[in-house]
């Protein structure tokens, strides 16, 4: 049983150029994304405390994302880069959230599947960064993140399969992969994860 789908379209080639031209801004955004990913996992725990089967994995995911934030922050400190004073509006996440269903159960499924596609896109982009890094330590760091984000993409689908029929999960996941592909193709390129 496949626990995620591949991304619908690859990141535009110009994206990595933006990242490499302003790696400091990318690190600031990356740190923000790790904090938000941790908060997302914990918000699912808070909103769905009755979903006992997935709470341990959500907590584990939140802790792992927070650990990634700490690691990114250490890299920033070593380069004299401060955390951003405010978190920029993420047009990518905003567009995904806007497309959610309204019903209680449908929204729960959508939140899990949105998390999966976001993590899968993150994995794709971390691999691109790792492949383009001349600094060997940074390349190893982003390879590790690539593996971790791919795993998170799988985890969220596995969580959905606890509560919804396989056919429903994969039909909706296919829809999200297509939606995400159209969103990622339309947003402006910048030195940011999304």
UniProtKB/TrEMBL annotation:
SUPFAM superfamilies, per the entry: Ferritin-like
CDD domains: MiaE (cd07910)
MF-aspect GO terms: tRNA 2-(methylsulfanyl)-N(6)-isopentenyladenosine(37) hydroxylase activity
Domain of life: Bacteria
InterPro entries: Ferritin-like, Ferritin-like_SF, tRNA-Hydrxlase_MiaE
GO biological process, one term: tRNA modification
Cited Pfam families: MiaE
UniProt protein name: tRNA-(Ms[2]io[6]A)-hydroxylase
Taxon lineage: Bacteria, Pseudomonadati, Bacteroidota, Saprospiria, Saprospirales
């Amino acid at each position: 049983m496949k626990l995620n789908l591949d991304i619908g379209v690859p990141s535009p080639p110009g994206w990595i150029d933006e990242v490499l031209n302003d790696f400091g801004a990318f690190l600031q955004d990356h740190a923000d994304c790790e904090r938000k990913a941790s908060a997302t996992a914990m918000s699912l725990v808070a909103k769905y405390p009755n979903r006992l089967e997935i709470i341990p994995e959500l907590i584990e995911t939140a802790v792992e994302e927070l650990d990634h934030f700490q690691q990114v922050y250490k890299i920033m400190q070593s380069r004299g880069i401060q955390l951003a004073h405010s978190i920029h509006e993420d047009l990518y996440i905003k567009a995904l959230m806007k497309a959610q269903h309204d019903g209680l159960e449908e929204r729960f499924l959508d939140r899990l599947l949105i998390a999966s596609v976001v993590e899968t896109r993150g994995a794709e982009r971390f691999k691109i960064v790792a492949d383009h890094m001349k600094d060997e330590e940074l390349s190893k760091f982003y390879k590790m993140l690539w593996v971790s984000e791919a795993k998170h993409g799988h985890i969220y689908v596995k969580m959905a399969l606890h509560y919804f029929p396989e056919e429903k999960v994969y039909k909706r996941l296919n829809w999200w992969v297509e939606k995400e592909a159209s969103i990622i193709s339309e947003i402006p390129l910048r030195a940011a994860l999304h």
